[in-house]
Design brief:
It contains twelve helices and 14 strands. It has helices at about 15-25, 35-45, 60-65, 85-95, 110-120, 140-150, 200-210, 230-245, 245-260, 295-305, 330-335, 350-365, and strands at about 50-55, 75-80, 95-100, 125, 150-155, 165, 165-170, 175-180, 190-195, 270, 275-280, 285, 310, 340. A seven-stranded mixed β-sheet has the order 1-9-8-5-4-2-3, sandwiched between helices. It has a four-stranded antiparallel β-sheet with strand order 10-12-14-13. Strands 7-6-11 form a three-stranded antiparallel β-sheet, with no helix packed on it. Strand 2, helix 4 and strand 3 (about 95-100) form a beta-alpha-beta unit. Helix 1 runs antiparallel to helix 8 and helix 9 runs parallel beside helix 12. The chain is globular and about 65 Å long. Bound molecules: pyridoxal-5'-phosphate. Pyridoxal-5'-phosphate (PLP) binds near residues 58, 62, 157 and 179.
Amino acid sequence: MRPFLPVYQPDLSGNERAYVLDAFDSTWISSRGAYLDRFERAFAETTGLPYVTAVCNGTVALHLALHGLDLRPGDEVIVPSFTYIASVNTIVQAGGTPVFADVNEEDWLLDPDAVAAAVTPRTRAILPVHLYGAACDMERLSAIARRHGLAIVEDCAEALGTRLNGRHVGSWADVATFSFFGNKTITTGEGGMIATSDEALFRKLVIAKGQGMDPNRRYWHVAMGFNYRMTNLCAAIGLAQLERLPELLERKRRIAARYMANLANSGVTFQRRKDHIENSEWLVSVLLPRGVDRERVMARLAREGIETRPVFYCAHHMPHHLRPDLVLPVSEDVSARGISLPSWPKLSDAEIDRVCEAMIAALRSA
Ligand SMILES: Cc1ncc(COP(=O)(O)O)c(C=O)c1O
């Protein structure tokens, strides 16, 4: 029996174990400790984003970022429908209204023309999501935001290591958010980060993440708050992961290049790569040719011990965000045809070749 190939598994073979044990032995296992400071400092250096604070997952990072905008009932936030559901749920949780805009055919990311068309007098923010390691067109989205006085919250959960013209994603935003779930480019088990260049906003968000407590007066709460803090144990894993980010990114870029070469004539379509974007290649995903039964292809790969997963379903089709009147042709097409392939850093070339051979055979018989 050939080994099972999951879509993802983290590579914890660096200092992760040593740092976690060190944090454990120090007894600083809650949300204060040296590893938190070191992880946050290292993250700020890596991304070039000056003010960062660690939180307990990428979903609460988004909620905190949106909370910082002080949305009022009826305030609109433009977001892709083709995204992970947290990008949409958190807008509602922060008191806003999601307004869905379509994505581009070539990169499956927020289409600036669709965003411009969706702006109304109630629009407060744009929430671009950098899916699968690609980068949205932040130049054009920023221009739209400037023209209409809108905030930008960049969801970088899937794009640590992605740069646009050398500039890390997240640096166009009022607030950017990251996720360190077990399948992300770096992991802390569960974890997230918010990042901003705005010092005043940063202070507000740090207070909100810690129950709204006055940093200079214990148990005096100056604002509405949450407990969204990361633990020192998680930060210990994160620091060890971050030390190896260049190595992880290099391997993932080689994985994506091999998939693209092997599957070049198979009929599948990749997100278009662009010269000015260093893609972190978080999760290699492809669109199956039109008319192919995705479930059958995935079932056939599963029989060969290869896990794949469908790309995200559109949020405007889900019961709690249902918009039966809304048609987003590109989002719906990408969502119906896409699958994600095994993409973890230690995947060997032979294993990639095995996935590709199985995929080509599955498409032939589809
Ligand atoms: C685009 C996107 N946004 C937000 C999140 C939420 O992150 P977390 O799972 O850490 O809560 C994820 C994670 O899966 C994601 O992929």
